[in-house]
Amino acid sequence: MSGTELTLGKAINAGLRRAMEDDPKVLVMGEDVGRLGGVFRITDGLYKDFGPDRVIDTPLAESGIIGTAIGLAMRGYRPVCEIQFDGFFFPAADQTFTQLAKLRARSEGRLTLPVVIRIPYGGGIGAVEHHSESPEAYFTHTAGLRVVTVANPEDAYWMIQQAIACDDPVVFLEPKRRYWDKATVHTGGSPAAATPMGAARVARAGTDLTLVAYGPMVKVALQAAEADTEHSIEVVDLRSLSPVDYDTVFESVRRTGRLVVAHEAPVTSGLGAEIAARVTESCFYHLEAPVIRVGGFDTPYPPSRLEEHYLPDLDRILDGVDRSFAF
Amino acid sequence: MSGTELTLGKAINAGLRRAMEDDPKVLVMGEDVGRLGGVFRITDGLYKDFGPDRVIDTPLAESGIIGTAIGLAMRGYRPVCEIQFDGFFFPAADQTFTQLAKLRARSEGRLTLPVVIRIPYGGGIGAVEHHSESPEAYFTHTAGLRVVTVANPEDAYWMIQQAIACDDPVVFLEPKRRYWDKATVHTGGSPAAATPMGAARVARAGTDLTLVAYGPMVKVALQAAEADTEHSIEVVDLRSLSPVDYDTVFESVRRTGRLVVAHEAPVTSGLGAEIAARVTESCFYHLEAPVIRVGGFDTPYPPSRLEEHYLPDLDRILDGVDRSFAF
Amino acid sequence: MSDSTAREEPELVQLLTPDGEYVPHPDYPFDPTPDHVRGLYRDLVLVRRLDAEAVALQRQGELGLWASLLGQEAAQIGSGRALQPQDMAFPSYREHGVAWCRGVTHRDLLAMFRGVTNGGWDPYEHNFHLYTIVIGSQTLHATGYAMGVQRDGALGPDGTAVITYFGDGATSQGDTNEAFNYAAVNNAPVVFFCQNNQWAISEPSERQTRAPIYRRAAGFGFPGLRVDGNDVFACLAVTRDALQRAREGQGPTLIEAFTYRMGAHTTSDDPTRYRASEEAEEWRRKDPIARVRSYLVREGMADDDFFAGVDAEAEKLGEQVRTDCRALPDPAPLDIFREVYAEPHSHLDQQRAEFADYLASFEGAEGAAR
Amino acid sequence: MSDSTAREEPELVQLLTPDGEYVPHPDYPFDPTPDHVRGLYRDLVLVRRLDAEAVALQRQGELGLWASLLGQEAAQIGSGRALQPQDMAFPSYREHGVAWCRGVTHRDLLAMFRGVTNGGWDPYEHNFHLYTIVIGSQTLHATGYAMGVQRDGALGPDGTAVITYFGDGATSQGDTNEAFNYAAVNNAPVVFFCQNNQWAISEPSERQTRAPIYRRAAGFGFPGLRVDGNDVFACLAVTRDALQRAREGQGPTLIEAFTYRMGAHTTSDDPTRYRASEEAEEWRRKDPIARVRSYLVREGMADDDFFAGVDAEAEKLGEQVRTDCRALPDPAPLDIFREVYAEPHSHLDQQRAEFADYLASFEGAEGAAR
Ligand SMILES: Cc1ncc(C[n+]2csc(CCOP(=O)(O)OP(=O)(O)O)c2C)c(N)n1
Ligand SMILES: Cc1ncc(C[n+]2csc(CCOP(=O)(O)OP(=O)(O)O)c2C)c(N)n1
Ligand SMILES: [Mg+2]
Ligand SMILES: [Mg+2]
Q1: CB-CB: which of B37, B59, B88 is closest to C134?
Q2: In whole angstroms, what is the distance from residue C243 CA to residue C258 CA?
Q3: What domains lie within chain D, and their CATH numbers?
């Protein structure tokens, strides 16, 4: 297996490139994805090598991006759409929730829409408003979509390829503050042979408490687990947010008896709520404490000078862990 | 206290009329709200009596409706916007989530945006696609919005007035299949003196299990409670979905030890998840069973000939009750 | 300064007057051979009949809803008959006439309005996309599809063109304007066919737009024109021309077919609340079918036998519509879970299995009650 | 058929040539008195300085981001100085020149880009709405506000007009087109001021639109025009005219100020990746400030003392900007919860209290560490 040191951002870039090489129907589209290579350079070099027919700088209109991607998919293409930042997804909400997510069912399976929506998401980069949001719960509540996120370069490289290969629409959330994190990526093999994008991963084994995180929070969760020398904390990296790989989560919780879920998104009606509800229903007699959620506050994302207080950090996670053990 | 027999739809109409009489800044706007009085006739007669400056037939563009309502509110008006059907809200998602919900915080309180978004929601009327959805979880996950719904004419009459009087943006969800339900409405008094729109209501007292419902499901919940002759079921009508009146819910669950939450929306990442998570955290030692959720399936709303199977009915609720007692 | 606030009545392409006189147009060649015109007449009469039957079936409770095309037959048959088999059409929800031209059966059309499906037919079989209810959405799908056609290199004299249908109300929607712009910037082979039937439910077109709709196109950098939407010859000729331009790589066109919604918005609507009956009266004199009949008679292209034959065919179709509608099978409860995803989905597959068990539990208890 | 696909260069309203020659325009009266022009020159120089300081502060890590107005000073000062005090402006995020005209301090502007607030000033105090980052949104707010002005009966010769600013890229967005339409249909007193700086980040305006932007207005039924955006006289004159039309009930106007973004999109951007430096060179010759200076010199309206005085003022402003920026206080952690709701909110109030307790728990343990 060949291994290369890549940042998470470069790993997505490499995965995109390979998907485009493997299948001439794969297109990349969005604002500034062409000559500029995207504001985070995730599509860097693709325009040069695949040309404007396959790497499309679209007009500044997100509904148009997803709406025309649907049409392209109907014609047999596999569009990978970039939404420039999380906060700019919402103009495309109608095309995504009402058309993209529902068209397969509406057509009784006659229409296959392998559209990927890439969204750099989450906070931590000191950005201005609308550039730091975590909208995953809007997607996980929408039937017909798959939702995944990545926490390391290896997953980034493979899961973007799996998302593109998937015949369902996939929302691919990219933890923007981790774009520059580096690790070895094993580029040998094929997307089909890599860990399926639907599977969760035990990122750190433990016995006393299960800590579920995903995307940008996996790193924080691992740090918290290390920092807690009193307890043996197991960290589960969800990877897929819809559907969630509950087999892995339940197995862990049944062993540890305790669960903390951490995410950047506001707690209320966030994905943590769904996980808490399902785990409680399925592992009721195993739980020694209620599921504790640690997340963003139920406010708009604050100005950047406050984000360190808004984002769950090591201390806030450990506070959640303490609350669990206090039961 | 004067009492009048009114349908739920007519009660909203009467509440709107009174709000418009009481405050010349109140406007009604939306598609077909004028001469037609709206497709459900909820604004019937208002155009005739208040004229086109206060009852505005807008162009067919939902983002435009909410976007211009924001501007009108900035100029001191209190717009009450009608979205014709639940499924047509999404073109307005950006203006609602990103602007309306956040502008007060962004302006540090300098902008007050008393905009009401009325949405006929939910299924049960045999409609075509996009006319039967329950989008409440998208709203409850959005900080800056208040979300309420009504289950009877009395609440409809008062809560629409309270929503209009509220200085925060309010999403006012109208259970369309209950528009024709009739009951006595006590029109004496003032909105400020009526039960606050933020308060839940125990619709039926009971001792063995708490059944939480709202909007169109309250009636089904009450029927289920009646039908279950083995158990004494307490039914809580939430009324406010954001924030939820947890005092009332916790108090009930601590007494009964069991909770079933029912809604029409898809279960996954639905409001039931949030209620289950919070109740479990706050009432952990009182719960004799996990919170059971009964809701729509995680699919697009099906064609109308299937909706009776999709919507939680008396049997599905009682199945949930049984599952709770099986623990 | 370009000032277009004045609402002078713009030019209207017309080939067939309300009295049934054929007036050739220099830009839009049309050859009204007897066979051709008789075929169009037959189309018009049959879709009107199909439509009327559907309205009646809704009244009888057999359909949940129906959106009638009454008055818009010429716009739909004219544009529909201009399509080549390889062309792709993206309708809104009222294009029963276009569906007819694309070979979508009345059975498939009725299925959606009966509530047995949210779709109804195979879009690829007919090159006719599903009906789209959310106003304006399909204009972007059409534009994207047309961008795909470009990428396939499927342009040229025998290439593929795309057409999308929408109403006057839809021109207010952001999506429709984004579609105009994406199509213009990409020079996509798509024809925007707007049936301006003057009403969006209760709102007259003055509430939707201040300028004549066809002029919107110039603002986005592509041609627009207004055609008499009750003139099947003109609708066919201008659409054929626009499709050919698209096919040959000359980009999009906006066609505004100026017509009138002679019936209610849908069977749920009551137009007496918002419009004067004289208006409908006036438009009845411009009926799209009457003028073709006049032309056929005037030119001696059809006799009483022909008209009786078409009427008999319409009778038969009506009967078939009634029978087929009632025979549409109800879906099975588990169809709720059908084709939500293309690939296995752990969570939904489990939910489906649980629901199957739940349904089965009743079978034991109450027999075939469910 | 109205065919506007040809991209001939449209007429451009210009009153002051790049060489500094004043050429009166029959439709747009302008009175270049010494005081007036000197005042405009001073505005132009000072906002350019403010802007340059902010770019430098970002480089030094004092700001998270800055969107430079370099090259667009004339469009902003011209239109900004056309506003009456009662008029309301809805900017995007680059309108530091307009903000300057509305009395918004550099301190307030810097606060948002430093990340100490998402807003920064009182919109009502200045009749200048907050910066809006999500492209196009503010055009609808402006239109709604203008509909409110109509309802207040605040039209007339001394009435209230509304102006909204946006870029060439924003014309692609659904919201902007919906705003054009709402404004047209309602004849709302709003001026749409588009600074076509030819770039939307890395995308040249050909990727956004096929027709000249000002023509979009005609398609919606209201007037549009193109003005030399580097000509402060022309920008002022045409905006004053359009505002007056709005004020007096004659409805909306679209002004396309044809200008150029001489710097990067924002301090995060690297334009060398997507555009040739010659292009910027060419536009430097059309500099909006140089031509006013030429005019002043040519007409003998200003001497070296005047220019030195303005430069000294700019120096002082620069210093003030640096000092004030660094002095901006950080918000307190609990400000996260500030003004999310106008009225008490049981859940959020509790969350706030819990967070306060949590913060306090550290104070006990670690002193002032947090
Ligand atoms: C986004 C959206 N908003 C509202 C509706 C409700 N609605 C259905 S049809 C209609 C009017 C459409 O008018 P027009 O576009 O002129 O088409 P017509 O019905 O006249 O053919 C409205 C408002 C909808 N279907 N979609
Ligand atoms: C809805 C939305 N999508 C994407 C962005 C990201 N973005 C910020 S500025 C910009 C380009 C704007 O170009 P233009 O409208 O021409 O204004 P300019 O920056 O040139 O002043 C983009 C794509 C955004 N802010 N909002
Ligand atoms: Mg219409
Ligand atoms: Mg620009």
Answers
A1: B88
A2: 19
A3: 3-327 (3.40.50.970), 332-370 (no CATH)
